[in-house]
């Protein structure tokens, strides 16, 4: 038996936040290559334009939407704009994120708020706006949230991001059950260390940190963003039509390796420890 299955997402309209660079740009490109029209949203117009131009070169369709996911009014306006311009919204990928490494005791109120606002509130702003649109339009839909395995383990140095990602995981599971009756599926992907400029600068800025991260990955390499995008495309497609409330991890075995071998480094007690 042979299949002709060239553009399984033809006719669909998907919104990808943080789509101007990194994993988001790869996801947007891969969805477009599968036939979807992609609304690429993010804070920087120049990056959005680059992604849209790249997708056009691949023969796909995409539109740029400047957006700060932290602003609920902007999000509502953008969702209405996409629905007007493209006629429908079938899916959302909440990929926009912010992160930096900082000991919890040094994290300022604004630093905490900034990451929680982008990751947790931003995901909620987009999910609630797109979910309402889907429910009102009486159409099925799919939502994918990009988290990290530290949503369930926690991770020293990134208490803001880990806390926000844990909230996103719980949001996903809650709405997967609550919105199943509206035909909306919600899932997460948990990428491990991925070779992007944003994550590199935020999380492994020096050679030493880079080596330490690599040493924690049994496959001994970073993920290519396209490997993560493939997983996203699967969950956004009808191939995953019975999958909801789940997390698919693609981390080269990192989380499992840490369980087996223990963490690479356990810090010594603080000098002034009681
Ligand atoms: C301590 C820091 C800091 C740092 C920022 N802050 N960087 N504190 N160490 N390295 C503090 C600032 O001092 C400020 O607090 C507050 O955070 C807000 O900073 P702003 O720069 O004003 O905020 P903003 O312009 O909104 O930028 C948000 C951001 C930024 C998160 C800080 O890094 C950003 O926009 N990042 C987006 C891209 C990104 O981070 N990508 C990586 C995602 S990787 P004060 O008190 O001084 O006002 C990822 C992967 C996870 O999430 C999984 C890995 C396995």
Structural summary, described in words:
The structure is a single chain. By secondary structure, the chain is α/β, with parallel strands linked by helices. It has a single domain (13-256), classed as NAD(P)-binding Rossmann-like Domain (Rossmann fold, 3-Layer(aba) Sandwich). Helix content is 47%, strand content 14%. It has 10 helices and 7 strands. It has helices at residues 22-33, 45-57, 72-86, 109-137, 150-153, 159-178, 197-203, 207-215, 225-236, 254-261, and strands spanning 13-17, 37-42, 61-66, 91-94, 141-146, 184-191, 247-250. A 7-stranded parallel sheet has the order 3-2-1-4-5-6-7, with helices on both faces. Helix 1 (22-33) links the parallel strand 1 (13-17) and strand 2 (37-42). The longest helix is centred in the middle third of the chain and has 29 residues, at 109-137. The chain starts with 12 loop residues before the first strand and ends in a 13-residue tail after the last helix. The mean pLDDT is 95. The structure holds hexanoyl-coenzyme A. Residues 97-100, 102, 108, 110-111, 114-115, 148, 161, 192-193, 198-199, 202-203 line the site of hexanoyl-coenzyme A.
